[in-house]
Amino acid sequence: MLWVLAVACAPPPEPPALPDVILLTAERSPAAEAADRLGTGELVRGVPSSVALRPALATLLTGRLPSHHGVRDPVLHAPVVPTMAEILADRGWSTRSEPGGILHAGERWGFGADGAGPVLVWLHGDDRLDVALAAHDPDSHLVVVGLDGEDDLLWCGPDVADLPATVGHVDVLPTLLAALGVPAALDGRDVRGAESGTLDTEDARGLAFGLGIEANGRARANEAPVLEAAVSPSLFVFMERRAAIATDLASRGLSRSPAEAVGLVAEVAVLLAA
Questions:
Q1: What is the mean pLDDT of each run of 10 residues along the chain (274 residues)?
Q2: Which of 19, 113, 220, 233 could pair with 150 in a Cys bridge, judged by C-beta atoms 3.0 to 4.6 Å apart?
Q3: Assessment of whether the complete model's pTM goes beyond 0.90
Q4: Could you tell me the residue ranges of all domains in the chain?
Q5: Domain 21-200, CATH
C-alpha cells in the first residue's frame, strides 16, 4: 500500500524537450552533390505548386490554400490566417527571421515573438542552402521544395513515406506540426505514413498544375490559372508570360499556333476552376 501511495504521489514525468525549427529558403535548388550526401528521405516528383512566388510562400507558411489564406498576388500583404510562426509562438516557441528581399519580410509572416521555449528561425539565402544540407542530422526533418513547381520536393527525416506526386506546399506545415506534436486544422495533411498528400480539386483555382511545359530541360508546373490572374493587377504580366510560353511551344514544332496555345491554357484553367 505504501508503494502504491508513493507511485500515486510521484510527480508526473516531464514532457520531452521541444526541438528548434529552422526554415531555410533560397532562390535556387540545392546542388546535386549536396542533396546526394543526405542519403535518406524520399523524392516526390511533379509537386503541384500554389500560384507562383508570394502566394506559394503563403501556402507553405500557413498550410492553407490561396482561397483561405487570402494571398493571391505578389504584393506586400500578410495572410489572413495564422502562419507557422504564429502557431508555434502560441505554443511557446521564440520566432526569429533573417530573410532576404522585401517579399520575404519576416514580420509580415508573424515572426518576432519572444517565448520561453525552443526557437523557430527563418533564414533565406542561396549561400546557406548547401551548407545546411551538408550538416543535416538524419534524425531531424529537412524539407526542400521550390515555390514555382519546377523543382522536386525532397523530404528527409524519420517516418517519411514514399508518396505519389500528390504532395504540395499545403502539406508541409501540417506534417511539420504533426511531427512536433502540435495539433492544427489546416487544408493540408500530415503525409508521414500516408498514401498521398493533398490535391484539393475543390480549390483547383489556387493550385498550378503542370501542362507538359518544360523549362531548362525539366518539367515545369503551370503558374497562376487565368481565373486567378483575371482579378489581379498581374493579369497583363501573366498573359505576356503565357504568350511567351505559347511561342516556345510553337517553335518546338507543335501544331498549335501561339494564339491557339494560349486559348488552350485558358480553357484548361476554366475547367479546373469550374
A1: 45 65 66 50 46 70 78 62 89 78 61 80 67 62 56 57 60 82 83 53 36 33 33 44 56 48 43 36
A2: 220
A3: no
A4: 21-200, 203-273
A5: 3.40.720.10
